[in-house]
Amino acid sequence: MHSNRYCNRIIVLPFSVLLEIRVKPDNSGVVTDGVKHSMNPFCEIAVEEAVKLKEKKLIKEVVAVSCGPQQSQETIRTALAMGADRGIHVEVAGKDYETLGPLQVSKIMAALAKKEDAQLIILGKQAIDDDCNQTGQMTAALLDWPQGTFASEVSLDGDKVKVVREIDGGLETIKISTPAVLTADLRLNTPRYATLPNIMKAKKKKIANVKPADLGVDLTSRLEVLKVEEPPQRQAGVKVETVEDLVGKLKETGRI
Amino acid sequence: YPAFSLSDVIIYFFLCLVKVNSTFWELPETHQLLRQTCRDYADRELMPIAAKLDKEHVFPAKQIHELGAMGVMAMEVPEELGGAGMDYLAYSLAMEEISRGCASTGVVVSVNNSLYIGPILKFGTVEQKKQWIAPFTTGEKVGCFALSEPGNGSDAGAASTLARQEGDQWVLNGTKAWITNSWDASATVVFATTDKKLKHKGISAFLVPMPHPGLSLGKKEDKLGIRASSTANIILEDCRIPLENMLGPRGAGFRIAMQTLDSGRIGIAAQALGIAQAALDCAADYAHKRTAFGAPIGKLQAIQFKLADMAVAVESARLLTWKAAILKDSNKPFIKEAAMAKLAASEAATFCSHQAIQVLGGMGYVTDMPAERHYRDARITEIYEGTSEIQRLVIAGQLLKEYQS
C-alpha cells in the first residue's frame, strides 16, 4: 500500500477503431485489411483527462497501452504526442486480433496494472466499432477495484476520486478510493490536438513491446461469432389518406 | 547525360537515413503523425466552416489561434522563439492538409510562415527576431509581405515606393498592392527604394508595425476566391519608422524578396496541392454515388479518364513539392525544383477543380457542393507568389545554366 497522498501512475488504454466499416462477403465479420484505423473518440477523451491530471501535478506519469497489431503503435504515438510519458504495445495479431474482445483486453489490463503498479486506469467508455461498453467494468472486477464509469467529471482528492457519472436519470456523483478504474464519457473534456513540438518530443518517448503470454493471459475467446450482417435496407414508406387507413395498415403489418 | 542527377542520389540517402526499413517514398514517422494531426484538424474544424467563411468573407481568427497553439503558424521557427522547430517538408505537409480543409486559412498560414516570418528568420538580427517573430507564432498576430505595387507585380525590380532617411528615422512613401492578410495583420515586411540610381540593387526591406501613423489600408478587394483572407492596398504617406527597422543590409531588398519567394513557392505549391486533392476527393466521391445509365458514373470510362488524369496531376505535383522541400532542408540548391513544384501544383489545382465541376455536372456549378469553391480558390495559385509565366522563366533560367559548358 502507498502512504503517498498523490497518485503516481495512470494507465490509459487508447483503442484504435476501424473507419468505414464494411461487412465481409462471407458474413463472418467486418473487413479489416487495409482499412484505416484511428484512435477511438472516447479514448481520446480518456488520454486528454490523464494528461490534464498530470498537468495539474496530481499524478506523476501517464502510460498509454494499446492491444493489437503493428498499427496500434500509431495510436500509442498519438497518445504520446498528446502528453503521455511512455507507451506499452501489447502485440496481438492475426486470428487472435480478430477474436480479441473485452474479456481478453481486461485480463491484459489487469495484469499490466499490477505489473506497473498503477493507481488509476482510464479508458474510453466504449469502442465505436463494437460498442461493447464492457472493458472498463470487467477490468475493475478482475482487479477488485472500484469503478467510476460514464464519467463526465473527475476530480482527485487525496487518495479518493470524485466522479460525476452520466446515467439515464441524470447525473450521479460518487466518491471512490484509488486504485480505481474510470471510463470516459463524451462530455468529460475536449481532447487537444497534438502540438507540433509535442509530436517531435513523442519520437523520443519509449514504447515497450509486450506479448500477452508474457503477462500470463490466455487469449482464447469464449465467444464464437456466428454471423455479421448489415442492418436491413431502409424500405420506402407508405402514405395513407386517413387515420383509419393508418390503423388498418399498422394492424396488417403486425405492428399492433 | 547521367540517368540520375546528384540530387536524386542525395534524396535517396536522406530517406534511407531517415527510415531504414521503409520503402523509397515513405515519410518519416513524425511527419506521418504531423500530417495526420493536421488532416484531423482540417476535417473537423476547417471543412465544416469553409463554405461559410468564403460566403461571408470572414477571417478565421479562432482557427488561426488554434493553429497557432499547435505550432502551425511558425513551423520553421526554433522553439526558443515559440515556433515548432520543424523542417520544410513538415511545413509542406501541414500546408497541404490545412488547405484541403480551407484554402483561405491555408493562405493565411502560408503568408505568415513563408513571407512574413521567413525573411526575418533569415535576415533579421537577434533583436528583430525577438520583437517581430516571437509574438507572431501563437496565432494571436499575423504578418504580411508588401512587395507588389499597382505599377509592378512581376516587375518587382521597378519598386516605386521610396524610403528616405531623415535623422534617426526612415520615411516611407508609396502604395503597395494585393497584400494578403493586410486587414488582419499586426506587422508587415515592406520593400522600398533607398537608392533610385542603383535600380533593383537600391531596394531595401523594412519592418513596419500595423497599425502605424502614416500607414493606411485601401479597400478590401472583392475576390473570386480565397475570400476569407483579406487582400488590400497598403498606402504609405510619410510613414516614419526607426532606423533599426531596416531588415538586412541596405540595398539587399530585392535579393531578400527573391529568396523569400523562392521558399514561399513551396508553401504555395502545397496549398495548391490541398485544393487539387479536395477537388479530386469531391469528384471521386461523387463518381461512386451518382448513378446514370443504370450504374454509378464511376463505371464510365469518360469519368475514369478524368479521375485518372486528376490523380496523376496531383501525385506528380506532390512529389515535386516534396523533392523541393527535402532539397531545401538538406541545404541543397532548390530554386528550379521549387518553381517546378509551384508551376505543377497550381496548374494541377486549376485542372483538377475544372474537371471536378465537369464530373459533378450541374451540381458542380452550385454552392451546395464545394467543387465551385475549389474552382474559384484554385485560380489565384497560378498568379500569386510568382505567376506561372515567371515560374517558367525561373525554371528555364536554372535549366539553361546546367547545360552551359
From TrEMBL, chain A:
CDD domains recorded for this chain? Answer: ETF_beta
Q: Where in the cell is it found?
A: Mitochondrion matrix
Residue stretches making up the Electron transfer flavoprotein alpha/beta-subunit N-terminal domain: 27-219
* GO CC annotation: electron transfer flavoprotein complex; mitochondrial matrix
* UniProt entry keywords in alphabetical sequence: Electron transport, Mitochondrion, Transport
Q: What InterPro entries does its record include?
A: ET-Flavoprotein_bsu_CS, ETF_a/b_N, ETF_b, ETF_beta_N, Rossmann-like_a/b/a_fold
Q: Which PROSITE patterns match?
A: ETF_BETA
| GO function terms (MF aspect) | electron transfer activity
GO BP annotations listed: amino acid catabolic process; fatty acid beta-oxidation using acyl-CoA dehydrogenase
SUPFAM superfamilies associated with the record: Adenine nucleotide alpha hydrolases-like
Under PANTHER family, the record lists: ELECTRON TRANSFER FLAVOPROTEIN BETA-SUBUNIT, ELECTRON TRANSFER FLAVOPROTEIN SUBUNIT BETA
Can you state the subunit structure given in the record?
A: Heterodimer composed of ETFA and ETFB. Identified in a complex that contains ETFA, ETFB and ETFRF1. Interacts with ACADM. Heterodimer of an alpha and a beta subunit.
What's the stated role of this polypeptide? The electron transfer flavoprotein serves as a specific electron acceptor for several dehydrogenases, including five acyl-CoA dehydrogenases, glutaryl-CoA and sarcosine dehydrogenase. It transfers the electrons to the main mitochondrial respiratory chain via ETF-ubiquinone oxidoreductase (ETF dehydrogenase).
Family affiliation = Belongs to the ETF beta-subunit/FixA family.
Could you tell me what this protein is called? Electron transfer flavoprotein subunit beta
Its gene is ETFB
From TrEMBL, chain B:
- Per UniProt, the enzyme's principal EC class comes to oxidoreductase
Keyword annotations: FAD, Flavoprotein, Oxidoreductase, Transit peptide
Please list the GO terms describing molecular function: flavin adenine dinucleotide binding; short-chain fatty acyl-CoA dehydrogenase activity
Listed InterPro entries: Acyl-CoA_DH_CS, Acyl-CoA_Oxase/DH_mid-dom, Acyl-CoA_Oxase/DH_mid-dom_sf, AcylCo_DH-like_C, AcylCo_DH/oxidase_C, AcylCoA_DH/ox_N, AcylCoA_DH/ox_N_sf, AcylCoA_DH/oxidase_NM_dom_sf
Its cellular-component GO annotations read: mitochondrion
Tell me which domain of life the UniProt entry assigns to the organism this sequence originates from.
Answer: Eukaryota
Which Pfam family name is an example for this entry?
A: Acyl-CoA_dh_1
This protein's pathway reads: Lipid metabolism; mitochondrial fatty acid beta-oxidation
Q: Which cofactor does it need?
A: FAD
* Acyl-CoA oxidase/dehydrogenase middle domain boundaries: 144-239
GO biological process terms on file: butyrate catabolic process; fatty acid beta-oxidation using acyl-CoA dehydrogenase
User: Where would I find the Acyl-CoA dehydrogenase/oxidase N-terminal domain in this sequence?
Assistant: 29-140
User: Which part of the chain is the Acyl-CoA dehydrogenase/oxidase C-terminal domain?
Assistant: 251-399
Q: Which reaction does it catalyse?
A: butanoyl-CoA + oxidized [electron-transfer flavoprotein] + H(+) = (2E)-butenoyl-CoA + reduced [electron-transfer flavoprotein]; hexanoyl-CoA + oxidized [electron-transfer flavoprotein] + H(+) = (2E)-hexenoyl-CoA + reduced [electron-transfer flavoprotein]; pentanoyl-CoA + oxidized [electron-transfer flavoprotein] + H(+) = (2E)-pentenoyl-CoA + reduced [electron-transfer flavoprotein]
Provide the E.C. number(s) assigned to this enzyme. Answer: 1.3.8.1
Q: What family does this belong to? A: Belongs to the acyl-CoA dehydrogenase family.
State the function annotated in the UniProt record: Short-chain specific acyl-CoA dehydrogenase is one of the acyl-CoA dehydrogenases that catalyze the first step of mitochondrial fatty acid beta-oxidation, an aerobic process breaking down fatty acids into acetyl-CoA and allowing the production of energy from fats.
Its recorded name reads Short-chain specific acyl-CoA dehydrogenase, mitochondrial
Give the organism's phylogenetic lineage: Eukaryota, Metazoa, Chordata, Craniata, Vertebrata
